[in-house]
Amino acid sequence: MRAQRNNIFFGIDFTLVFLYVLLVLFGWMNIYAASHSDLQSDLFDFGTKYGKQLLWIGMSFFLTVLILLIDAKTYEKFASIIYMISLLSLMCLFLFGKKINGATSWYDFGGFSIQPSEFAKFAAVLALARLLSDRQYDLKLLKNQIKAFIIIFLPAIFITLQPDPGSGLVYTAFFFVLYREGLPIYYIAVGLVAIALFILTLAFGFNTVLLCCYVVLTLFILYLRYYRKISLKFHWLKIMGLFAIIGLFVFSVDYIYNNIFEQRHRDRFNILLGKNTDTRGVGYNTNQSVLTIKSGGFSGKGYLQGDRTQGDFVPEQDTDYIFSTIGEEWGFIGTSLVVLIFTLFVLRILQLAERQKTTFSRVYGYGIATVFFFHYLINIGMVIGLFPTIGIPLPFFSYGGSGLWGFTILLFIFIKLDASKSYEL
Amino acid sequence: MKRGHLLTFFIIAVAVVYIGKLFFLQVASQSNQTPLQSSTVKKIFDYPERGYIYDRNNTLLVTNKTSYNLMVIPREVQPLDTLEFCKLLHIDKNYFLTKFHKAKKWSPRLPSVFLAHLSKEDYAYLQEKMHRYKGFYIDKKSLRYYPFNSAANILGYVNEVNDETAKKNPYYQSGELIGTTGVEKQYENLLRGTKGVKYLQRDHFNKIIGPFKNGSYDTLPTAGKDLTLTLDIELQQYGESLMKGKRGGIVAIEPSSGEIISLITMPNYDPNLMVGRLRSKYSVQFFNDSINKPMYDRSLLAQYAPGSPFKMIQGLIGLQENIITPQTSFRCHHGYRYGARAKEIMGCHCGIVNEPIRLRRGIAKSCNSYFSNVYRRIIEKYPSAGEGMDAWSAHAKSFGLGQYLGYDLPQGQKGLIPDAALYDRWYPDGRWRATYTISNAIGQGQILTTPIQLANMTAAIANRGFYYTPHILKDSNDGQPLSSKYTTKHQTTIDKNHFAPIIEGMHDVFKSGTAKHVRLKDIEICGKTGTAENFKRINGQKVQFEDHSIFVAFAPKDKPKIALVVYIENGGFGSMIAAPITSLMIEKYLTGTITNKWWEQKMLDTNLKHEYEKQLQFVETSEE
Prior knowledge:
Chain A is built from 17 helices and 3 strands. Chain A is mainly alpha-helical. In chain B, strands 2, 3, 4, 5, 10 and 16 form a 6-stranded mixed β-sheet that branches. A 5-stranded antiparallel β-sheet of chain B has the order 12-11-20-19-18, with helices on both faces.
């Protein structure tokens, strides 16, 4: 037992570590492809983006060792404090933060900058896991639900106000965690219906959608009344309420879209819905990124042979649009493989999470799985033109030290928790 | 269902949708595009130098001259000492500012012309200083240059390829140069060589960032071929100077090979004005000059009635058809009466009355009556006028008349040798006979020939019965022999022995006939004057102008070295202008010197401007 504790590598899941290393290295190769130029050829030139990223990767190795050295119980113990520090750091951004690309998301320490929102995710997951680890905690109770929501949405609100709505959006992923831990299905169902109605309203307009909804609803009620022979006598209030809520929602979508959204937000949706075919102005990013992926074909143009990548046709290609480099240089083989690896990676975390003996570990595992899932869901969706433009990095691929470290910490705390389960209890 | 499965389901669903979308993007909707057509690849061409053109004595006729343009890329310009820069270029500051502003407005990233056509001296000087002015550089461009202001109609010019050609011929990009007329057009493929292609990688600003795939797709240019022409530029220039002030053409051919020695049209233009940026200005001027028509190559395109020179053909057909012998004689009474009515007589100026005229004398004195008799006998030899006409027509056509000759210049006219079908169309009831077409006997009537056809006909007579297709290319200097088209003998339908009396008659023209005044001491010339009546239809009225002056000749009589035709529009009687020019040309070509200084000066001084202005006035007055 003693010997096992001293060996920090004991019990860790090498499948996950292997997938992690694979993603990081492949990610770095693509950052190199997207940011190198013929003039600079030194891999360790830390003035270049790929050089810096290599430095971050090297340092994250020490970070993983550090995380594995710390006792697994520490995280549960200090979850609240970590969460508090994280909130504080998010709040202080509004006082001391540095504005980059229009968002005050950074602390500038002279030579390098740190993005606290990347670390806030793991703090939120820890806090949520800590909250739900109480065996008596019942998520069917509204009081408990609200507590959980506060933990989730407090950092999300701060981040959205930076403004970095993309990173804020990731926190909605935790609904899946809450659902797993006993939150009623309504939340997710209502959420999905709301998203569907939102998109339909934008696509087909207020009147059409409202009419269709009411027709469907009426048919459903008639079905209940005459085929299922359910008496509706005592439910008229509920039915009227349903009609009113749907009407109000569709109306508010229409109103918010036209009056509260800024033009740039509207543009993003219009492009996605094919209402705006401008490929030079607002649609430039998406169009170029899709064209670049398309140009890769089945087997790609070969590593470092992506002429569109080298011509800087896609903006932000080393960060948010890194997936388009993969698409151009590695083709369908590369892109589908990356999607598969991410899928396996997340499913493996879920599988391990379900095996955890403590609720804390399970919730934590679930939490990070959803965070990873939402990141690649939104990022790849945006790059291949299925989602509107939402600035959010692709884990382990996008250039940036804070992101890489944030995701590494997220993952390795779970690996440590998972490794420790054998000698706990 | 366990609660954990919902998320698993979502994750797998997303993977399926994404891979499906990627499959659609990257596999299903692929067009067959090569990497070279990608929008990131810029194709630039490496143009080889266009081939030079030499004459038959290896005198350089067409070469290339480099033009230097100062280019600017506004974005790359660094702050500079404007005053010094302006002094260097001999421009003022205003010019600098407006030009720079204009370039910047057009595109800050792409090069535009800052100062065009720098001289070679300026270039040499500026080249050393240019490195100090970032964003400016000197661009070299090759232009055609013609050391002699001569032979523009033969050499032709190069022009920017038009959209239609560029669309049809994938070799050309819009804006590239292509031979548009003359030899430049005919031998475009030899002269231009093959351009090389370089593929460059560009970024999203269209800026070049380096070679595409390290140049592995690039091809090297192959140089254009230098051409040697059959032209004698000395004779050409001499002929052009003699033709100054007149309209018409001279065509000289070497009978033994079909080589075109000179091909003169007048009025012509200065080939150096159809080069580079001058071209757009002058081509408008040249092409719109409907009075002088300098772009109209009369030597190839003008169709005239051949007049008396056609009598040789008439005589030869008569001999071949066995309806006359050299001894057959006819009488002339100041004309030939072909009908009973008073106006049915063809006048004759031979002046031989009450004396039988034989073939040789008929040629020498150009007797209209003699050849009218011959023509009538030919046609009437056959059972019907139609058959006779066709037999006559076939003989005439065997001299290359009435058809495209097939020479290697890109323009031409067929001319016209009438046949039965033509007259059957005119007289559908078939009642026409020889007398209806009697004008054909003396080279008028329906017969039309271009000067080059007449020259070729003369060459065939000089050769005693055969000719080679006239051609302008002597050697393409690529080891390839000349096309067999130009080395194949074309036999006429006339037997060799029939030529002797005709040639004797032509020789007499210089001994005792219409060209006696311009005979040469040491050179035996055989020739024939011609005078062709001409009419113009002005406002529906047939108006007669001064006759065209024609002369065909070859020399020497034995082993002829040159056969030529001189055609002067409205030059009057053939012996007045056409004959002296012929004599001077022959002497110039065969001996290189001129003994007949008096005639030379007279011809140089002769100006028919008043004659042409008369026509113009007529048009003007009749329009009023």
